[in-house]
């Protein structure tokens, strides 16, 4: 099943899709720049339940911050400062997080305001 961007004008949008790759649970995210300017500062934030956390970092192109909370973990994924390339207008960037546990993201937002859309496999 393909990943389609959420419908939001003039903003970055994101979708996520749970799946399995090589018998490892994964979450695949697609961030789309729906603006007319390059997006150097995109970020995706979400919460995971206490029994679920991301595995090794997915790519040198992204930076991940994990904050433990009373109910689980708050995850922030953004462009790594060492990556010189933005998401161009109309283009998308995909990253996949290997997961430990089977919980799904909640409170998923792009740039702190736009809700992510879950794609059902």
Automatic annotation (TrEMBL):
**Entry-linked InterPro entries:** CBM2/CBM3_carb-bd_dom_sf, CBM2_carb-bd_dom_sf
Which SUPFAM superfamilies does the record cross-reference, listed alphabetically?
Answer: Carbohydrate-binding domain
**Top-rank taxon:** Bacteria
Q: Which Gene3D superfamilies match?
A: 2.60.40.290
MF terms (GO), sorted A to Z: hydrolase activity, hydrolyzing O-glycosyl compounds; polysaccharide binding
This one is known as CBM2 domain-containing protein
Q: Which organism is it from?
A: Phytohabitans houttuyneae
């Amino acid at each position: 099943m393909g990943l389609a961007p959420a419908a939001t004008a003039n903003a970055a949008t994101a979708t996520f899709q749970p799946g399995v790759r090589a018998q490892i649970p994964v979450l695949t995210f697609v961030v789309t720049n729906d603006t007319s300017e390059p997006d150097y500062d995109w970020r995706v934030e979400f919460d995971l339940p206490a029994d679920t956390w991301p595995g090794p970092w997915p790519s040198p192109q992204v930076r991940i911050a994990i904050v433990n909370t009373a109910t689980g973990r708050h995850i922030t994924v953004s462009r790594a400062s060492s990556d010189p390339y933005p998401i161009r207008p109309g283009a998308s960037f995909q990253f996949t997080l290997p997961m430990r546990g089977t919980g799904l993201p909640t409170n998923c937002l792009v740039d702190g305001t736009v809700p992510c859309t879950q794609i059902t496999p």
